[in-house]
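Worked problem 6 (solution included).
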Amino acid sequence: MAGLEHEGAIVAVAGFRVMEMLTTGRTLYVDDLVTDPAHHSRGHGKAMLDWLQKFARQAGCETFSLDSGTFRHDAHAFTSASACASPASTSPKNWHNAQWG
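Solution. The predicted structure is:
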């Protein structure tokens, strides 16, 4: 688990794990990514995603996986938009199984 602090308060948290998958190899899987609603649209979620991707690379992960419930429209739109803007993803339309070399 990781948290992002801003001005003395935790504004975003992520629950994640590094695991081996038969189909994709070593991956960092993000179970949960939450930003305090009072701090939405301030770049904290993007900063957390950037940190998670850097951590995944340092941990030798071949893929980065994040599930986003499509019923949570705002959250899903954020993760989809962030994936497309991410230089780490070589397959931006397939965020849930983004790979890099």
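Discussion: The chain has one domain: 2-99.
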